[in-house]
Amino acid sequence: xxxxxxxEEGEGWFKIAGSVYNSTQTVPYITAKVELxxxxxxxxxxxxxxxxxxxxxxxxxxxxxxxxxLYVSVVGGISTQYMSxxxxxxxxxxxxxxxxxxxxx
Length: 105
What we know:
The chain is mostly beta strands and about 100 residues long. It is about 0% helix and about 30% strand.
């Protein structure tokens, strides 16, 4: 997200961004959504929901209050994947590179 931050060349300042794949982790998953919640495993209050676009990417320039951390859910057509640990920022691809892709079914 280095180009989509304040003072850089990318259009808009992304508050969260990443890519979602299907279970093979090779094909973009285009009908998913990414949810940020206050509780684990889809619990708690829904703070933000971001739709995945036609290229398998999700992003928003709308403000997100991560506070002391939020839990991420990736909702697909037949399953939901949950992160067990909190995130404190939206730089998803910092950890989720080609060896640890975000995916759902």
